[in-house]
Amino acid sequence: AQHAESLAQLAQLQRQRRLEALIERGAFNQRAPAPEAAAPKPKRERTPEEVKYREQVMEWHAAAKAGEVGVLQAALASNAWLLSNRSERTPEAALGNSALHWAAAYGRDAAAAWLLREGAELDARNHGGSTPLHSAAANGREAMVQ
C-alpha cells in the first residue's frame, strides 16, 4: 500500500512539473501562441504534369469502379503504364489498389475480365497485402470470387 502511495505521489509530481514547464513556455498565455500552434507549412504547388498524371490515374480507377470497359480501353491505348498503377499520387494512394482491385471490389465482372486479358496481375497486392480476389470477397462479390 505504501508503495502504491509513493507511485501516486511520483505521478502527481511529474504532472505538476509538466504543468510548470508549460506555464514557463507561455502555453497558457493568450497573447503569445505556444510553439505547437505554429502555422503549418504551405503545400507545394503541383506542376501541370503532376496534375495531368493524377487526373489520368483517377479517371482510370473511376472507370474500373464503374465497369466502363470502353473508357478503360481508351485510357490504356494511350497510357500503358496505367495497367500497373496502384493509385499513386491520388487521394486513394494509401490503399495502393490497382484497377483490378477496384473492379473486383465493385463487382464489375466485364471490366475485371478485360483487365486480366490485358495483363493485369491477379496476384497484385495492395498496401494492406490484399489481392483483387480479397477485395471481391471482402465486398460480397461471390460470383467474381468463383
Number of domains: 2
Return the CATH topology of the largest domain.
Serine Threonine Protein Phosphatase 5, Tetratricopeptide repeat
CATH superfamily of the largest domain: Ankyrin repeat-containing domain
User: Pairing-aware structural class of the strands and helices?
Assistant: mainly alpha
What oligomeric state best describes the polypeptide chains here? single chain
Q: Quick one: CATH class of the largest domain?
A: Mainly Alpha
**Biggest β-sheet description:** none
The tally of strands reads: 0
Which keywords apply here?
single chain; 146 residues; mainly alpha; Serine Threonine Protein Phosphatase 5, Tetratricopeptide repeat; 7 helices; 55% helix; elongated
What is the structure about, briefly put?
This protein has about 150 residues and is an all-alpha fold. It has helices spanning about 1-25, 50-65, 70-80, 100-105, 110-120, 130-140, 140-145. The protein has two domains: about 1-35; about 50-145, Ankyrin repeat-containing domain (Serine Threonine Protein Phosphatase 5, Tetratricopeptide repeat), CATH 1.25.40.
